[in-house]
Amino acid sequence: MGLLALAPLALGAVHEWASFPLLGLSFLIGAVSSWRARSARRRGEHSPPVPGWRLLLALHVLVVAQLVPLPPGLLKAVSPGSFAFYDGNSLVALQGYRPISVNPADTARGLFFLAGITLVYASAFRELHQDRWRHRLAAAILAVGSVLALVGLLQAASLHPTRIYGLWRPHWDWGVFGPYVSRGHFAGYVVMAIPLALAFAAEAWQSTWERWRVGRRGWLALSEPAGLAAVWWAALGVLLVVALVASRSRTGLVAFVVSGACLPVALRRRRLALVLLAATVVAVSLWVEVGGVVRAFEARGLGASRLELWSEALPMARDFPVLGAGFNAFGTAFLRYQVRYRYEWFGEAHNEYLQLLLDTGALGAALGLGLLALLARRCVRASARGALDAGVAAALLAFCVHNAADFSFQVPANAATFAALAALAVRRGDRTREGWAALGESRPPLAGRGGRLVADGDGQADAGRGRAGQEADEALVDVPPAGHQRGRRVAAVVELGRLHHDVGAAEHGDRARPGRGRLRAGAALRGAGHHLGHDLG
Q1: CB-based contacts of 72: which residues, under 8 Å, 6+ apart?
Q2: What's 162's DSSP letter?
Q3: What are the tens digits of pLDDT across the range 391-438?
Q4: What confidence score (pLDDT) does residue 483 get?
Q5: What is the spatial distance between Cα 52 and Cα 309, in angstroms, rounded to a whole number?
Q6: Which residue ranges make up each domain of the chain?
Q7: Which of 58, 107, 95, 98 is nearest to 79 (CA)?
Q8: What is this structure's pTM?
Q9: How confident is the model at residue 263 (pLDDT cuts 50, 70, 90)?
Q10: What are phi and psi of 336, to 5 degrees?
Q11: DSSP character string of 479-522
């Protein structure tokens, strides 16, 4: 977690002095996490496999295959563009063996980067699945984003706005904002932090509203810890949005709008989410002059900086159809297709999905789409479990939208943060609940709908069932299967959690509807007693 916090402050870890330690420590952490997982399996404990590991392994194998030298005839058959590239740069007919990648050195560095980010994802999936670690990771990302926002705003108002930390001025300084050389990369991180701030604010406001409604405390509820936390998280969200607007990143603003529109849909309390978003937008509009943002969109449209680049890069797909030009080798391969702006060198396609197609071909693009589909499916399932889960899903969506016209996936700090959040989402969106089978239980966890306990065929714990029942389900899912009797004891603890929730819900219903509340209390006690007697017996 400290690694993820320091990387954005180190200029996004885009330079070798920061990226190599980041990736090297990722390998070390990944090795330790894998060893811990194997040790747990040897002890008979349950350790779920990392979702998507087959797709990730296949992508790594594809990149390795791009580095294998091939004879000219085979190279021409599997990658006509690679053969034409090497043959065109040779004074005589191509005779020696050549790899598919048109720049093996860049592809090898890309493979090192891909493996490091994959290990971040796998380690976060195994180690950060507990509720307290999920909150700590989200709070750490939000804290770092707030520091980046303050640095960017102070730097923009200083006498030297292009000097990072007031000390260093990069060679290409036209897009500097905060510690990042490019305002787009700054926006790529901030758009992930904003939904997390709104999610924390929604959690705190929900708790404050419940105290307000039950205790009839009125505005005094805002002076309690939950109320103060709600104001604090909302203020951080406003700060992040102000910094995003001040950066004048077009793709960042579009990503924020898309994720902000989807966040109320994911949250159960949609009215609360809409109020938070509206308050944030109003506060930002009062703080920042939005005319500059409009002028930035008008002056720097997509036509000159993106669409022309993409139209010239698309023909590469015809020459590198199946295996691509080489992972991370776009800049070398694009030189033969570049017509406009010949005086500039484009190392990236400014569209990560297009570059994935050009770098790895149709095979790599299919693997990437499979990973995105897995992530989207798990995010949809997880977002119904709570406000923080919905915020994580919105953060991932914002980052994916941002990369449709930028390349933040190639910024180590941003990519590592995305991988860690993706690990949280896929772990929370697991609907299989393999822990139930390991404990000998045939029924799935129970989920709450409108205060009632019903069986959920998908095995997905519903956040609306209350914190006691949800934590009990999580404890059961993650508990190691150390024998049938131990599993029965844990199941009894789960039933106690259900009993606690049911009695509380019945008491609340008793205040509103006395007759119905007593009936629900009796039914809850009878059902919980039956399960307790069965499990303890």
Answers
A1: 83, 87, 94, 95, 96, 97, 98
A2: T
A3: 999 999 999 999 999 999 999 999 999 999 999 999 987 765 443 333
A4: 42
A5: 32
A6: 2-66+101-428, 434-536
A7: 98
A8: 0.79
A9: confident
A10: -75, -10
A11: S----HHHHHHHHHHHHHHHHHHHHHHHHHHHHH-HHHHHHHHH
